[in-house]
Design the sequence.
């Protein structure tokens, strides 16, 4: 018998269910329509292309839950709860249909021989999973996870759904064991236990109905409540995954088209997908746990950023829908200086860790940069950053040195690198400004020149025509400066004759690879010098004269690793040199930024941080037993970590060395021998 | 309220500067020009006054150097009108000549305040503002670091040696030599600058031709090694080492 065929007072049960059902569905639909209208406030952005790739994103990130499994303690329970949700979507729909249409025979999944056991098992699994996640949330309290009533209520509701389902199921078995021949381990277990009580046994039918009603009413309450809660991510994140950005992460989205103000600080200036981030976010805190600035106590939080966007959207979106645009009309105040303080934006190092760890594929970085663009547009940049911008604009380097001095490092060589503008070369070496101008790096630059000579690589440089590539100016929000630098570099590159191009700077590498579409007409993608060195070692063009016995660790630069997936080449080089490589706990995709990216290296210190990301990183390296050397493959890393060794007092414990210097150490020995042999 | 800002371009010291063959002037081919720093501050102070009291700001620049770029930057920062002053001569004018040129252009124009940088690196006696005030018959205050407008007069803050400062009341119109603006000169994003450059109207005005200069340069030279001076040379590291050695020889270091 269907529970709703009974009378509840003067009205039949099914009539009451219809009223509750229609109310819940109505509330749900009204709210969801409203949320979609809010999203449509955002500016347009094409996310309907490349459908097969989008479907793949959904398979991997929604059904596969890939990034959730990065943290197994919560990832596995989440997978169980997620699949439990799908199973119960079926089970509960079937229950609702039976209840709403008592006169019509609807196939009952709760007693189906194949489906019912699955539901039964999932009910128990979800309860176990909830116990684990609750323990984590309320007892372990990991950083970045907030204790909110919303989260607590959602946990209680899900648990109640499972309990009421098992209750209804087990009491149905107690009432009519003969009709329930299906294998239901948990419901039967409970039923055996309940059946021992005389009272429960006699009231089993009624109790089964009570639990049935409770289950159905909680589901309907949940349906109506869902789009108001953080559980909205359940609805929004599959769309978030489908509409996620498919371009490489190293290609920053272009700003709003010409004619519109640069950057964003009001809802209508963000793209609709950026606004969708606000609904897709489950406030899981993975971004904060991955954020180097947040970890050292700087006022940066990708989670808070997205949350503030959500607050702004829910608070002022409705007025915008009524066309009240100015704050004076009760409309929207700017986010900058309102919910978001500039210091929060400037403390981002654009290391991409938040984006790469976000399970719902939100794009914190594009939001961050759009807000920065607006600050720059308003001229609100700190004095040091302004100086760097002005220097880049005037001299093409942030050091404020004459471009004529860009090749001054070559003066310490006993040979002169070719000028790629004057003679054709196989490889163009684009150095990047740190390798050229920074006094602590020039010797390393010369080392590479010597190594390349030993390997007989035919290469040239652009001498004073090389400019900063604009990677970090762009990420600091100075889009126009990036375009200016790109034009100047492209003009110089077009005059040079070369087949391949490589750079010593991951920041150059990234922007050349992803943001210079005309570069080399896409024939040969740019390579990083570690890739070139790995190749030269592999092909025997470089021979290791003496194996190195250092015990080292390697730091993955953000713009090489996370941004462009180059993890193996530097490790191959280290292996070939014979060093003993020990990995840091945070390596490869989890690498911890040096704190210098996205223009941070030019800015004043932000806030009252307990320490700097670079300090946290050198401590991590120094904590590895017996490791004497932190090997880097990015000039900025060298500078940041060398400073950090001084400020942490770890100078005697560990040294920072560029990969190039190790190669020179291992290889030039051979070269010296060759020279001696030739002389003899 | 009408404000005129007088500017000029000077050599950018980031580039090496050479003396020309005559030995009486710097080699102008070796020079890269940049807006004189204190003129940049004068412009900033004028823009701050504009923001506070809806002033109309016009910027005048002598013809030397990358004038157009400098004037476009002024427009992008918020100036209302920019004018290039044509001098009819190749060489940069002396301070006297510059003051006469500015005076010939400004005479009779209804400016309440004329701001200029108090000095420039190519002429350290800082006399343009004072001379101009003399030619125009207006009061002059130099080394100003703050300007406030009160009922047709200005209160200005002036620096004195020894860390002193004074507030002076100045009747308008007046000429002020700006030492530093109240805030560092503002940043103009490249996008806006380039937009302005596409559409900018840079007006040109002829100045009265300069008469013969009573002062002329006879010799210009780089620092020379005198008796008792030793020049250190080499890489930065080598020089540093030499300095350390010299200091320890003289027992300055421990």
Sequence:
């Amino acid at each position: 018998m269907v529970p709703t065929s009974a009378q509840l007072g003067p009205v039949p049960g099914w009539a009451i269910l219809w009223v509750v059902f229609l109310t819940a569905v109505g509330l749900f639909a009204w709210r969801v329509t409203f949320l979609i209208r809010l999203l449509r406030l955002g500016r347009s952005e094409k996310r309907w292309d490349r459908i097969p790739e989008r479907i793949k994103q959904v398979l991997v990130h929604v059904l596969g839950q890939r990034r959730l499994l990065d943290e197994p303690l919560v990832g596995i329970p989440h997978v169980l709860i997620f699949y439990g949700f799908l199973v119960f979507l079926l089970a509960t729909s079937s229950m609702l249909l039976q209840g709403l249409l008592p006169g019509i025979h609807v196939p009952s999944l709760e007693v189906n021989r194949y489906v019912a056991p699955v539901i039964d098992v999932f009910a128990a699994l979800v309860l176990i999973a909830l116990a684990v996640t609750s323990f984590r949330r309320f007892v372990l309290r990991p950083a970045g996870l907030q204790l909110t009533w919303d989260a607590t209520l959602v946990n209680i509701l899900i648990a109640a759904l499972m309990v009421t389902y098992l209750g209804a199921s087990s009491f149905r078995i107690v009432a009519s064991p003969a009709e329930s021949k299906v294998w239901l381990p948990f419901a039967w277990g409970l039923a055996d236990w309940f059946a021992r009580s005389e009272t429960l046994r006699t009231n089993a039918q009624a109790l089964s109905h009570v639990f049935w009603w409770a289950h159905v009413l909680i589901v309907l309450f949940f349906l109506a409540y869902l789009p108001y809660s953080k559980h909205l991510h359940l609805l929004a994140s599959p769309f978030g995954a489908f509409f996620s950005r498919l371009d490489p992460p190293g290609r920053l989205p272009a700003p709003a088209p010409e004619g519109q103000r640069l950057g964003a600080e009001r809802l209508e200036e963000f793209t609709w997908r950026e606004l969708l981030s606000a609904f897709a976010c489950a406030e899981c805190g993975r971004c904060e746990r991955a954020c180097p600035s947040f970890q050292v106590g700087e006022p940066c939080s990708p989670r808070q950023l997205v949350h503030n966007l959500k607050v702004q959207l829910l608070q002022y979106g409705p007025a915008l829908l009524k066309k009240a645009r100015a704050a004076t009309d009760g409309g929207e105040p700017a986010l900058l200086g309102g919910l978001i303080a500039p210091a929060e934006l400037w403390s981002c190092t654009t290391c991409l860790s938040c984006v790469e760890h976000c399970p719902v594929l939100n794009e914190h970085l594009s939001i961050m940069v759009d807000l920065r663009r607006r600050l720059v547009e308003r001229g609100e940049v700190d004095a040091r950053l302004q100086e760097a911008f002005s220097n880049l604009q005037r001299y093409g380097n942030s050091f404020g040195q004459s471009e004529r001095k860009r090749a001054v490092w070559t003066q310490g060589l006993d040979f002169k690198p070719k000028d790629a503008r004057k003679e054709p070369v196989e490889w163009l070496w684009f150095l990047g400004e740190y390798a050229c101008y920074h006094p602590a790096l020039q010797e390393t630059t010369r080392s590479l020149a010597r190594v390349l000579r030993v390997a007989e690589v035919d290469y040239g440089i652009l001498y004073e025509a090389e400019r900063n590539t604009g990677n970090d100016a762009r990420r600091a929000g100075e889009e126009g400066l990036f375009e200016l630098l790109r034009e100047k570099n492209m003009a110089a590159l077009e005059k040079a004759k070369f087949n391949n191009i490589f750079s010593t700077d991951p920041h150059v590498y990234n922007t050349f690879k992803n943001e210079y579409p005309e570069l080399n007409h896409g024939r040969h993608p740019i390579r990083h010098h570690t890739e070139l060195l790995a190749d030269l070692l592999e092909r025997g063009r470089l021979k290791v004269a003496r194996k190195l016995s250092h015990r080292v660790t390697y730091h993955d630069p953000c713009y090489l690793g996370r941004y462009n997936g180059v993890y193996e080449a530097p490790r191959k080089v280290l292996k070939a040199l014979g060093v003993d490589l020990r990995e840091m706990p945070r390596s490869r995709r989890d690498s911890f930024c040096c704190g210098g990216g996205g223009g941070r290296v030019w800015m004043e210190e932000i806030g009252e941080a307990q320490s700097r990301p670079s300090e946290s990183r050198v401590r991590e390296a120094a904590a590895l037993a017996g490791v004497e050397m932190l090997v880097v493959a990015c000039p900025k890393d060298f500078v940041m970590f060398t400073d950090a060794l001084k400020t942490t007092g770890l100078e005697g414990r560990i040294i920072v060395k560029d990969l190039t210097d190790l190669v020179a150490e291992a290889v030039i020995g051979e070269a010296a021998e060759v020279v001696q042999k030739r002389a003899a | 309220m009408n404000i005129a800002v007088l500017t000029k371009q000077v050599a950018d010291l980031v580039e090496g500067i050479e003396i020309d063959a005559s030995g009486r002037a710097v080699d102008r081919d070796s020079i890269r020009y940049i807006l004189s720093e204190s003129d940049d501050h004068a412009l900033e102070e004028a823009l701050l006054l504009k923001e506070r009291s809806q002033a109309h700001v016009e910027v005048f620049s002598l013809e030397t150097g990358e004038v157009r770029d400098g004037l476009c930057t002024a427009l992008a920062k918020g100036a209302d009108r920019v004018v290039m002053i044509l001098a009819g001569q190749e060489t940069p004018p002396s301070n006297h000549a510059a003051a006469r040129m500015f005076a010939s252009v400004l005479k009779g124009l209804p400016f309440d305040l004329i701001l200029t940088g108090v000095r420039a690196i190519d002429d350290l006696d800082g006399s343009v503002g004072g001379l101009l005030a003399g030619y125009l018959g207006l009061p002059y205050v130099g080394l100003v670091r703050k300007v406030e407008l009160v009922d047709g007069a200005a209160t200005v803050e002036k620096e004195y040696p020894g860390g002193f400062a004074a507030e002076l009341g100045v009747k308008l119109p007046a000429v002020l030599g700006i030492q530093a603006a109240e805030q560092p000169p503002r940043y103009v994003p490249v996008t806006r600058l380039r937009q302005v450059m596409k559409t900018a109207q840079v007006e040109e005005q002829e100045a009265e031709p300069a008469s013969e200069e009573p002062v002329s340069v006879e010799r210009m030279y780089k620092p020379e090694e005198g008796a008792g001076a030793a020049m250190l040379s080499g890489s930065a590291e080598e020089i540093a080492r030499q300095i350390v050695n010299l200091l320890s020889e003289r027992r300055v270091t421990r």
Remarks:
- The two ends of chain A are 104 Å apart (CA to CA).
- The mean pLDDT of chain A is 91.
- Residues 72-100 of chain A form the longest helix (29 residues).
- The first strand of chain A starts at residue 7 and ends at 8.
